[in-house]
């Protein structure tokens, strides 16, 4: 059967209408493609929507990870899109989740995206056909499920929905309460209680700071090489990794033991794509989504792209850049390498990661300092605008502040002066 040339394909399916999905939809429409975004929720915004919802049973999935009082750990000056920024009327740089949600709503309004978004429509299966994609969509409004056909698919379902729970000896023996940070909503639940927080990433540090204001005592368990600053948290004690749980507490790897009422797992999330059929040709092993070219294009079926898998990055800007990168190929302005070339590049890049001591599949999409090389690659290969230098400089200035300056860093206010320079002043 004759296949339609890639540059003659028109129809785009976007899965999700959060930060990445809205960006994929907007850029696809601007390229003249016929795009539709399916969002299973009742509004746009994805993970930024605060909800008190809790799972009804062990099979129930809760989408939101937002908690009361959350403020961003990145300044709004790097959280906007390249062509749409946060209003200058907002004085603070580190803003609330509700302000982020309002910004995403205004982005959808500004670019007139709503006619192209189907709310309460859940993509439940995506399957490749000879020349296009079969997408089954469950319309929650009418309780119907029908196939729709598209030429391109953008997977933008986020990765803050399925908690990644560690496997620690004795978890089943412990009789206190255990929960993942995904379900944390309010600190008052822990009033006068003793709590163990496992994990000192951005959420672990921030939730520790929230909980300690209500709790009697908080133990913060982590394996960071450099000790975080908790001097301003009078009732927080740092501990190493948990060796094993006991009936009422835990024994830690330094041989010490403590008792506590609750365990909070701030241990991250699993990449999960339940709507993709096996013949999509994508495997997820310990959060390594493969095989992908440049962390986004499905090598087995290149008309499918995943937006937003890299972490330790500038989120909104990398979403926008990945979408613009892939669209250059989807609209025929650039020609994709063949499968063998893409696989060879993937193998080379992962080999470099392993050689640097990162032989850990969970770090396969971690960027950090590598992100700046990645942005340069995408810009050069597709002939697209790179992220402005001022954004990169500002991002570097914010690095690791949530660990070492948690009590003060959100008091800084940034202002972008031009493409190269920014100002930073206390509020």
TrEMBL record:
Signal peptide: none
Record key words, sorted: FAD, Flavoprotein, Monooxygenase, NADP, Oxidoreductase
Gene3D superfamilies: FAD/NAD(P)-binding domain
TM regions (residue ranges): none
Cofactor(s) the protein requires to work: FAD
GO molecular function, one term: flavin adenine dinucleotide binding
InterPro entries noted in UniProt: FAD/NAD-bd_sf, Flavin_mOase, Flavin_mOase-like, FMO-like
Short name of any one Pfam family annotated for the protein: FMO-like
Enzyme Commission number(s) from the entry: 1.-.-.-
Family: Belongs to the FMO family.
Record's protein name: Flavin-containing monooxygenase
Lineage: Eukaryota, Metazoa, Ecdysozoa, Arthropoda, Hexapoda
Gene from which this protein is expressed: LOC117567448
